[in-house]
C-alpha cells in the first residue's frame, strides 16, 4: 500500500478506540490466546469478553468450565470475573479504562452465563419443575432462591455510563 494507507500506530482502531471480541467459554476463550498475546506485544487496547459456566456450576465439572482467569493473567493487563448482574457495567468500565490507560493492552472479562440471561430465564432454570420435598429440599430451595436474589440484587439500579478518563502518561521535557 501507499504510505498514506499505513496505520500511524500499532492499533488499527481509531485514536482512543479499543478492539472488542466476545467468545464462548472454554475452547472459544482458549482459541484467543495467540491473538491476545499479539495485542499485548503490539500494545493494542483489547477487551476480550469470555463466557463461563454458570456461577453455581463453577469448579463442578460443568461443560467448558476451565480456569480461564489464570490463563490470561500473564498475557493481559488485567483479568476480571463478573459475579453479579449489577457488576457488569462497572466491571466493563474499569476493564476498558485499564486497556486504554498507560501502555495500552488487552484485558479479559469473564462473564458467567447466568448473569447474561434475563431474570425469568435464570429463575425458571434454578427453580425446576418440582416442588421441594422434605427439609433437605426446602433448604436447597431456600439456598437457590437466596442465590438468585443475590445474583440479580441491584441489577436494575441506574449506572454511571459516562466515559471514564483514559490516563496516558506523557514525558516531561526533562525526561525527553
TrEMBL record:
Similarity annotation: Belongs to the TPP enzyme family.
Encoding gene, per UniProt annotation: Ilvbl
UniProt protein name: ILVBL protein
Source species: Indicator maculatus (spotted honeyguide)
Source taxon at top rank: Eukaryota
GO annotation, biological process: isoleucine biosynthetic process; L-valine biosynthetic process
Essential cofactor(s): thiamine diphosphate
Pfam families for the chain: TPP_enzyme_N
GO molecular function, one term: acetolactate synthase activity
Matching InterPro entries: THDP-binding (IPR029061), Thiamin_PyroP_enz_TPP-bd_dom (IPR012001), TPP_enz (IPR045229)
Residue ranges constituting the Thiamine pyrophosphate enzyme N-terminal TPP-binding domain according to the UniProt record: 16-66
Gene3D superfamilies reported for this sequence: 3.40.50.970
GO cellular component, one term: acetolactate synthase complex
Amino acid at each position: 500500500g501507499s504510505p498514506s494507507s499505513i496505520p500511524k500506530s500499532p492499533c488499527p482502531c481509531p485514536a482512543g478506540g479499543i478492539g472488542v471480541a466476545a467468545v464462548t467459554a472454554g475452547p472459544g476463550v482458549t482459541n484467543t490466546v495467540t491473538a491476545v498475546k499479539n495485542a499485548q506485544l503490539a500494545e493494542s487496547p483489547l477487551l476480550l469478553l469470555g463466557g463461563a459456566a454458570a456461577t453455581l456450576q463453577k469448579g463442578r465439572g460443568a461443560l467448558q468450565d476451565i480456569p480461564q482467569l489464570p490463563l490470561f493473567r500473564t498475557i493481559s493487563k488485567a483479568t476480571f470475573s463478573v459475579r453479579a448482574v449489577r457488576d457488569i457495567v462497572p466491571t466493563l468500565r474499569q476493564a476498558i479504562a485499564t486497556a486504554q490507560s498507560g501502555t495500552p493492552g488487552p484485558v479479559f472479562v469473564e462473564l458467567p452465563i447466568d448473569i447474561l440471561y434475563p431474570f425469568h430465564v435464570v429463575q425458571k432454570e434454578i427453580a425446576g419443575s418440582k416442588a421441594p420435598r422434605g427439609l433437605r429440599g426446602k433448604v436447597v430451595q431456600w439456598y437457590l432462591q437466596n442465590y438468585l436474589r443475590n445474583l440479580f440484587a441491584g441489577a436494575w439500579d441506574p449506572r454511571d455510563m459516562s466515559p471514564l478518563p483514559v490516563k496516558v502518561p506523557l514525558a516531561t521535557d526533562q525526561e525527553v
